Amino acid sequence: MRSPQAEAKVVAVIRSEDGLQTRNHHFFARSTRWMLFVIVSLGFWLSAPVYAGVNVLLIGSSYHFDVKEGGEQQKRMDLKSVGLELEKILNKGARNGPSKVVFEDIYRTKETPVALGASGREIPTEFHCHSLAQYYYWPEGREDRLKQLKGESGTSWDYAVIVGDPYLINHMPGIFAEGVHLIAKELKAGGGTKLVLLMPWLENAEATKHLSEVVYRVGQGLGIPVAPAAETVTDARSIGRSDSSYLAAASVFSTLSGRESWGQRGQAKKALATLIKNKSKPAFTKPYSESTPFTMEFIDKSLITFNQTGSSSERGIKSGIIAAMRQCEITPKETNNLDEGLIDFNYGRANSNFEPNKRYQVDPSKFHRSYGFPMQEAKGTAAISMLYGIDKRYFNKQAYDDGTDLGVAYDMCRDNEVEKNIRAVPIRLMWAKIKDVDPALLPLRDNWHMSHFSDAASGAFIVTLLTGKDPRGEEPKDNSAQEWKMWKARAIGYETAMRMALQFDLKD
């Protein structure tokens, strides 16, 4: 439990911030409010030291998304070591002080079969969890895991430090934004937990600038302070060195307290200096525009053309696309004539384990944009296996298979397709959200085809990611009606597309 001093400190910070934000609500634009949040938060943390006796939850993965295919894990952040260093700092070097840092390793695996195709042939499959979003929806032990985040499992968290997978932040930042949103929602449910985003690094120091932009954008969008460890470690040329863990821990401490940490004074000064330097940077006001599998465009057209292969899965999503376009007052036009001029987009299945002739098309001379989606599983396993299918999977525990949300995006990154305006549709992530709305719903409408709710979410996601427009329409009053559930599916598609494109100005 929190000490009385820690409890008083947390309550004082919350009340002070709420009062200041209320007094200034009508005077500041969104970007100004963000800078005010940073300055005010630092000001209160400067005057409110981190007392002994606090409980800190450190959330992140010990094993990174790309390591099995070539990433250099040993040069990256060692979160277990960071947790130990942070605990020493909080306890001023004492090995067994009253402050506690608990490392929650989100990496885990699960063996469960996947039923493929109309035949339903089952393949033994090992699923891997690397992202915060997959951790949030990982079926095994989910209820207990969410209770722990809320502080309902015996320990109330004074602070929580959230760390994303560095490869995913750099190449697929949308899944990081979505994961932070989901995890932060549970952590805040406890009422008194203060959150920090800890910026990790890659072995390639040149990636630090982009990592910094993404983490700060997410922090700005979700109102969470950032500990810029990657910048400090890069500037100190400590990537792959033993002192990187201390620098990361010192960055967290300085973000929490606004002052220099105990221990290695020269390194502590660097951590604080980076934090102070970044405080003066202007807020992000322009939309995120780097090419990733989930980056948004803002096409403003009254008529949008599209093309697809015509198979049953694509036809289901087509109904969702047309419904979303009509809500945005866009006229949809499907065409198979590839010689009539540049088509706005095509879409198709993306995983490579069967029917490659029905894949999305990569041809910028014919299609302005293309979307790929991972095929659903068959009825025999879909209700279970699709919830595990956001990050990665291996058939027979060893053969990498790309039939997951991030598996599709990973292919696009490694095949240099993203720069050609190729984008991924995270069908399994959106299905997990739909199931949370109504646990009685099933992922398929028959033995093989996706539910109409999934199709509606996918269509809304595709249209939002292309236009930036809101395809939800007016919310029906009866939330038990089929019409409301279809509206909610479109809302899930819209909201997911916005966050995964690092656009946080969701329309309420």
Topology at a glance:
Layout: H1 4-23, H2 30-47, E1 55-60, H3 79-90, E2 100-105, E3 108-111, E4 114-116, E5 121-123, E6 125-129, H4 132-137, H5 142-149, E7 159-162, H6 166-171, H7 173-189, E8 194-198, H8 208-222, E9 226-227, H9 229-235, H10 244-257, H11 265-279, E10 303-308, H12 312-327, E11 331-334, E12 343-349, E13 367-373, H13 382-385, E14 392-395, E15 399-401, H14 405-414, E16 422-424, H15 427-437, H16 452-467, H17 482-500
Parallel strand pairs: 1-2, 1-7, 7-8, 8-9, 10-11, 10-12, 12-13, 13-16
Antiparallel strand pairs: 3-6, 4-5, 6-14, 14-15
Helix pairs in contact: 1-2, 3-10, 7-8, 9-10, 10-11, 12-16, 15-16, 15-17, 16-17
Summary, kept brief:
The chain has helices spanning 4-23, 30-47, 79-90, 132-137, 142-149, 166-171, 173-189, 208-222, 229-235, 244-257, 265-279, 312-327, 382-385, 405-414, 427-437, 452-467, 482-500; strands at 55-60, 100-105, 108-111, 114-116, 121-123, 125-129, 159-162, 194-198, 226-227, 303-308, 331-334, 343-349, 367-373, 392-395, 399-401, 422-424.
